[in-house]
Amino acid sequence: MTFANRLKFERHEDSFLVLERENEAGGLCRSKIVGGAPFDIGGGHILDVRRPCVTEYLFQFLPEKEWDRYVRDSRIELRSGTISHPIEANIWQMPIDEQVEYLESIAKAGCNSGAPMPEKFVDWIYWKLGEKIAAAYMIPYNKKMFGDQLDSLGTYWLEKLPSVSFKETLLSCLTRKAHGRQPGHAEYFYPKQYGYGEVWLRIAKTLGDNIRYGQKICAINFDTNTVTTADGSKYQAEKIITTIPWAEFKEIDGMPEDLRADIKKLKHTAVQTRYFPENVDTDSQWTYFPSPDLPYHRICYRHTVHNYWDGYWTETNATRVEGELEDGVTRFLNDYAYPLNTVEKPQIMARLLKWCHTRNVFGLGRWGEHQHYNSDLTVERAMALVECV
Fold it and tell me: Global pTM?
């Protein structure tokens, strides 16, 4: 949506089409009205405040007065109780004896004893946070998120996670307040009257006849720069911007075999979101649940965003969805929820995107680049790409 809008109104280019698989724009950021209020079908999506160029751009379509600004309040449900996120900055909320155990564990972690940083994610957890946090939260939670793919993840993407040193953790316990760099979305915007999908619907409206809905792409030909839809329609272009998962191209012509083999190595997870009408007694906007006894890994609460909205939704890795659901249950299955940051992925995507650029095909966004981008970063990258192509 961002790339197309900027192309049309800044570059004054009108000879293009956006081919959208669904009947409305927004992808994972779409919202539906469920129980009289918005339900973000792809999970909790919000607008980080840290990129002013992005917020100013989006406020053109959904003005700032139509958003509320929040200070993040997210929590973790541990067996011993609930504490604020991130865990290492909020150990001070635990009983004293537990604080001592966690601090001792962190002090013994590899990063504090001079051990080299490991290359795999699971090893990094123990190296960075110690055995106590690993066992109580990080390992069980990430197993629920990523399933049996956990051991294949690398460490190059960990800038997304908060970074709190032992010194800052100790300082937090002594002063009884969080210290250290907080996670993303420490402050964020969310629409006052709408779900997060509203802003993308408004941008889509600006495109007029330049967008076509119900166009499921199933094939791409790099020799002719042509894409083919499921109904056999073909579209040829000078340049192609692809935002869909690479695995969704069931046929790829004109690409070297080794790159096609690489695409098959890209991994991702699917997530189900499920709506519940009742409220939960919490002030948190969302809570993480590492317990393996619960199928879901996160709950997002609507009444803490707006007190006149009721209900909440759970997010569950599709492999953990249990049995058949009764009639009347509202749920959405997102087949492509999170790209997995496997050890070999950076090399795969570097080779793939570099070669595609030589054919005037450009991957963009979470799936076009197979990166765990939030929407604000995707918008920023789309704005930059307009200037390059």
Answer: 0.93
